[in-house]
Amino acid sequence: MHNVQQILIESINFELDTYQVYILFSKTFEKDAEFWNTLAEEELNHTSVLRKIRQFYQGDSKLMDIISVDDVNAIKETRKHLEKLVQKFKENPSVKMAYEIAIEIENSIVESKYQKFMSKVTDDRVIKLFQALNGDEFDHLKRIQEYFQDKKKA
Fold first, then answer.
1. Of 41, 43, 91, 139, which has the fewest Cβ atoms less than 10 A away?
2. Which pTM was predicted?
């Protein structure tokens, strides 16, 4: 059995890493700062939701079946990979690279599990509470793709 608390801690750290990446993009591309800042703030909110889950988690396997990743090492490896991508970006920043990194982040195992959790239709009161805390802050992948599609048209 995986260590649920460690998985939640690493997931929180990944969300914080993502927040930092989107802040970097907002500072690098001032014309797109509002877009990146919005995503960054939403990632920060995701950390709050995950912290609440960690605080209230009492061994409920139903909750962890939705949110968890089976292997904490998968999250750690994803974080290391993101760190390498950010280093490359800092060496030669481009809008294209920011887009590719953002797509990779949002396709990551942590983000895809989070998205699944937030969009799950359920009658479970605890899950509904976390979904309410999250609000409409989901589907980043779709929003990033649409934003850059609109930029291409402009």
1. 91
2. 0.80
**Residue pair 97/89 in contact by the 8 Å Cβ criterion:** yes
Q: Structurally, how many domains does the chain consist of? A: 1
Instruction: Look up the CATH number of the domain holding residue 12.
Output: 1.20.1260.10
**How high is the pLDDT of residue 1?**
39
CB 22 within 8 A of CB 39: yes
Q: Looking at this protein, which amino acid is placed at residue 121?
A: V
Of the chain, the percentage scoring pLDDT greater than 90 comes to 36
Quote the pLDDT of residue 48. 85
Task: State CA 39 to chain mean position distance.
Answer: 9
Report residue 114's pLDDT band, with 50, 70 and 90 as the boundaries: low
Q: Which domain holds residue 66?
A: 4-153
